[in-house]
């Protein structure tokens, strides 16, 4: 459907396999068979297409405002005075009037504002500031509609006196406010000493921060987990792969702060700023400055408090997710299997060979994806047969759909593209403001348009197109890409040029001639010196040829800087305040739909207001479209550009990373921030998307990603093949770690149940689970899966060991090696050296945990049908607890569920059951780690019926009690009745 035309812009590419157990391919021949410096135009596979040349509007040539020392200081503006306070049951309202002459720092000052303070829930206070006089035509410039993004409201019962938080304010010299904790007066947020700035294209608010504050979140970013006190987070959704320390695909304007207090319990709280405009958060030594290009102040302050008066990061996160943005979706069980994809599998035969390669290597493969639906290389009947074979094996298929829609060439009847035509006939595309016609930007297939998600009819059209496509290609979910929305040219560059379609993007593609990628990870020259030398030589040859080659035009660079605001005028293309956009020149229209492009709603809303919501909107539309195709089934979507609340409908991957150790390391920080964002179905492009991996990096990354909810290997054309079976060492590492992952799938699924019902996190930072240890504040080289599993990955090349800490040991926490179940000997805050051969990742179980496991199979279906076992890891009091959630793994609304809770204390294991869902597999084994000896006797009662202990096999070895033979007592399912097992030691 949406990708039919992509095939014209993508051709087959050569690839080779590097590293251990690989066959050497003559690299020089691969990049240039005759080594002659031919001009690129002589290649007939690509240059038969016209080239999409970017168009650039004129703009000032200055530096970005963030680094412009001559830029106005908005804090010299007069601020506002509050008056006319009106109290209500939930809070108060007041008028804010500008306290002096117009400032005109980066826009037109708005003289009259409304202040609303609402104690919305015991743990949450909302502060809204917006213009008093908003004409309907300007409404979306200032107010973010609750129909677009959830807007929390008063719970109907909370008052100032019952709130965890209190807002106080002064009017000297202008309106300033602060948020404190009601119980002890701890100041959490304060604008004291600073003015509020409110202009039509610029808002600013500054809060004071404590010394060496610890702040997390403000995603999406590729950055350290602990943000630091000299960091800038820009929000403007951008198609910029591996954008380190800059803006990226998503917008999550909220942070969580933890305060360590010299031996006392730490405290935590959170701040969410509900605004979708382009914006920046400037973290400085003792302040955080919040700036946006429009909208309103709509702050939600979260106490993070528990019922006992303490506060924690995990509670703060749960308050944000459940109270502000909405609980994440519960995903189908099969989506937790291993996914394989690549940009550029050439045809069905290649895809079949990939599936067979995984099967022959005995590496579990759940899902295959990423294709171009070309009628020659991917014929309908062939696709149906291929996908049918996947379904027969319990596997699944999820294709990629780009966010742009190809605009057909009107002069070429064979170029007809009905999805675009049907949408255009209904007026469903974002419009060019100069012509009123569909906006025509550029993307992979050529000149393209983008759907207007403000229109209900656009959602209907999208659903119908996906349904038509599903009839030919029976997919199981949809992967949405380029949803920033990405535009490969500047401006509506297709106007008057549709007769040139399809056109080549205005840059060289990875599969274009002389575009082989020769980047390899750090340490490749050590692990594979021979091939590293060949790569170096080939790279030099390619560079030499390119230096004498006529190449495609280089897109024009916009160098954009501050412009003076014009009274009474809004410049949405080049606003006076320049956010630090990672794109060249920092322009908002660079690599995106122009900010002045117009939607079809009653307010003629522009992209200036809605840019950061495009990915959020298309993911929502896709979710509901899939729900129509599969009624009653949980839709599976994965989106690239997301916004606060996207977890309700879509999963997410970390985007176009690189095959480097640094990208692998930062993927952990990315994952943890998405756990904070209520979007737990997160994963990285394992082994790296661009560049070439090697067996060392790919082995370690396959091991690491096995503990991410979304587990996928994905890479680009012109890089080497990196499927896990390509190297014997990667295959072995993958087999071993997938045995671990698949055995604990039911544990991960239970974690998702608590995420979807309570806002809990799936992956967890050590500092969240051990909040009173300041040494863990910035740690993300290790992480936890739920409360019970500690993962210590290798993150550097060419080593066979790793160092890690075992948090909580000073307070009595016990840890057990996953593989041997032997206890760990470690001192508080000690970096323990752990053996880590290439095929091994260190995993430890926290004492006090009971984890339900299943025998791993080749697919999630096989695993789900296999017998259960229980792992009981005793704490220092010889006790443990845990839970297991069960449902059919598919349905959006369940007919039946079951929650099994486990308790072990005083040598008695008890299970309690809520719900009626029937799980057929029996319980085969119980393992107890940390036992002192073999139990002298054992008794078992299930649903009140006792069983003979003589029929149960009990073995003791090295502190581990293993009880087997239990399946004979649970032939109708492990959890059909409450049970009690008594052991006497």
Automatic annotation (TrEMBL):
Cross-referenced InterPro entries: Gal_mutarotase_sf_dom (IPR011013), GH (IPR017853), Glyco_hydro_31_C (IPR048395), Glyco_hydro_31_CS (IPR030459), Glyco_hydro_31_TIM (IPR000322), Glyco_hydro_b (IPR013780)
Catalytic activity annotation: Hydrolysis of terminal, non-reducing (1->4)-linked alpha-D-glucose residues with release of alpha-D-glucose
Glycosyl hydrolase family 31 C-terminal domain residues: 759-851
Domain of life: Eukaryota
Segments forming domain Glycoside hydrolase family 31 TIM barrel: 328-751
Keywords assigned: Glycoprotein, Glycosidase, Hydrolase, Signal
Family: Belongs to the glycosyl hydrolase 31 family.
Protein name: alpha-glucosidase
